[in-house]
Design a protein that fits this description.
This protein has helices at 41-50, 75-80, 92-98, and strands at 13-17, 20-29, 54-63, 66-73. It is of the alpha+beta class and 99 residues long. The radius of gyration is 15 Å and the shape is globular. One of its GO terms (cellular component) is nucleus.
Length: 99
């Protein structure tokens, strides 16, 4: 979806087999043992809506020729089961309102 530029969609890849479409959101890092990433409210809502047809592919690029991938199928369900946790990040605007 983002081959030429950012599409603004809450996923990066679609895979269609017959009548089934899978959406894949990519996240990547070069930091070993980093077990977190940002996800927007829109992406979380999309995950809730799509269920099993959404997977987050979390890629660790450890060397120029080596990568590890963790596939998180249905991240909304994983969060509901407490296999994934959400964290709160305050925006600059919230910090300004608190002052």
């Amino acid at each position: 979806m983002n081959e030429d530029n950012e599409s603004g969609l809450p996923y990066d890849i679609t895979i269609t087999k017959g009548h089934v479409t899978e959406h894949v959101e990519m996240r990547a890092t070069v930091i070993p043992n980093k077990n977190w990433f940002y996800i927007s409210r829109r992406e979380l809502q999309f995950a809730a809506q799509k269920g099993d047809s959404l997977t987050i592919a979390y890629v660790l690029l450890s060397k120029p020729d080596k990568a590890s991938i963790v596939l998180l199928k249905n991240p909304y369900k994983l969060q509901q089961q407490r296999d994934l946790n959400l964290a709160l990040v305050m925006s600059t605007r919230c910090e300004e309102l608190a002052a």
